[in-house]
Amino acid sequence: MVAKTPKNKWVAFLLCLFLGYFGAHKFYEGRIGMGILYLFTFGLFGIGWLIDLIILLTKPNPYYV
């Protein structure tokens, strides 16, 4: 069983806001595969970036990944 690690909601939100097109928030969460996908598709063409911003605002602080 893999232990979940706490992540700060506001750090992830700011990374997503300013560097979300490059997948910085996905790398911060430890989701390397999704980070690479965001990197090559510019945040899944902007749609994934916008959805992630909204989702991050609704998460508790800290959240666990």
Description:
The radius of gyration is 11 Å and the shape is globular. The mean pLDDT is 94. By secondary structure, the chain is mainly alpha-helical. It has four helices and two strands; from the N terminus they run E-H-H-H-H-E. Strands 1-2 form a two-stranded antiparallel ribbon. The longest helix has 14 residues, at 32-45. Helices cover 66% and strands 6% of the residues. The chain has one domain.
Name the beta content range.
Answer: 5-15%
Sheet with the most strands: spatial strand order: 1-2
Q: If you average the pLDDT, what whole number results?
A: 94
User: What structural class do the secondary elements suggest?
Assistant: mainly alpha
Enumerate the spans where pLDDT stays under 50 for 5 or more consecutive residues: none
The total beta strand count reads 2
SS field, number of helical segments: 4
Order of helices and strands: EHHHHE
Question: The biggest beta sheet, please?
Answer: 2 strands, antiparallel
Report the end-to-end length measured between terminal Cα atoms: 13 Å
Helix content: 55-70%
Overall number of structural domains: 1
Measured on Cα atoms, how large is the radius of gyration?
11 Å
Shape category? globular
